[in-house]
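Hi F.,

I've been meaning to write this up properly since the lab meeting, where we talked about keeping a consistent format for the predictions we share between groups. The idea is simple: the sequence comes first, exactly as it goes in, then the structure tokens exactly as they come out, then a line or two of notes. No screenshots and no reformatting. I'm using this chain as the first example so we have something concrete to point to.
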Amino acid sequence: MKGILIVDHGSQKREANDMLRSMAALIQTMAGSDVVVRYAHMELADPDIAAGFSSCVQGGATDVTVFPYMLSPGRHSTADIPRMVANVAKAFPNVSFSVTPAFGLHEKLAEVVLERAGIGANAN
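Output, unedited:
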């Protein structure tokens, strides 16, 4: 079974951490019940990466894709998160995993910016 773990930096602000939980719920709804979707914070809040990865496995995932929920390919998304995930994954030798790039440049992100700015067909 496929698992998706979205990982942000983590925050001392509850509202920021709650947003990641809400995004995981939205992704779960969109992905359907054949995919296990969980979330984790790199630091500052729970669940941490170890708990999030373990939760994917406990949910039945045998292949976990970790998505750094960050805009750009900085140190956290390109080095820290992959290293942390690899360390955690050692405890689950029968589970494959990969870490995707951060959001980076993507047309859909530009669409959100334009929408929020009130420009374009989808503007409110």
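Notes:
The first helix runs from residue 14 to 31.
The chain has one domain: 2-116.

If this format works for you, I'll send the rest the same way.

G.
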